[in-house]
Write a structure and sequence with these properties.
By secondary structure, this protein is mainly β. It is built from no helices and ten strands. The strands form two sheets. The protein has a six-stranded mixed beta sheet with strand order 2-10-9-4-5-6, with no helix packed on it.
């Protein structure tokens, strides 16, 4: 059994930064083999992939966040982070971490960027 627990959401002014963390617990002995990702969903919109990091530490980003967001992982801590810089109001959404290609999702955390 795997649980993904998120932290770090909140309210930030436009141009500011915020860091989200996601820690896996339970049967995490294979965490280093998992591809991990961050998704977000704004009201009235489809959930979209924000960033992905593979088990080989390769990263991909949505065009909308390239150059501003950084995904990273710390396998020793079973953790994946999303550093969000130069935040914009359009980044406002509920953010979810996920073991990609799986049914394992974090609980979601609200990120609100004020103008």
């Amino acid at each position: 059994q795997v649980q993904l627990v998120q932290s770090g959401g909140g309210l930030v002014q436009a141009g500011g930064s915020l860091r989200l963390s996601c820690v896996a617990s339970g049967r995490t002995f294979a965490f280093s083999n998992w591809d991990m990702a961050w998704y977000r969903q704004a009201p009235g919109k489809q959930r979209e992939l924000v960033a992905n990091i593979t088990n080989a530490f390769r990263t991909k980003y949505a065009d909308s966040v390239k150059g501003r967001f950084i995904i990273s992982r710390d396998n020793a801590r079973n953790m994946v982070d999303l550093q969000m810089n130069s935040l914009k109001p359009e980044d406002t959404a509920v953010y979810y971490c996920r073991r990609d290609y799986s049914a394992f999702w974090g609980q979601g955390t609200q990120v609100t960027v004020s103008s």
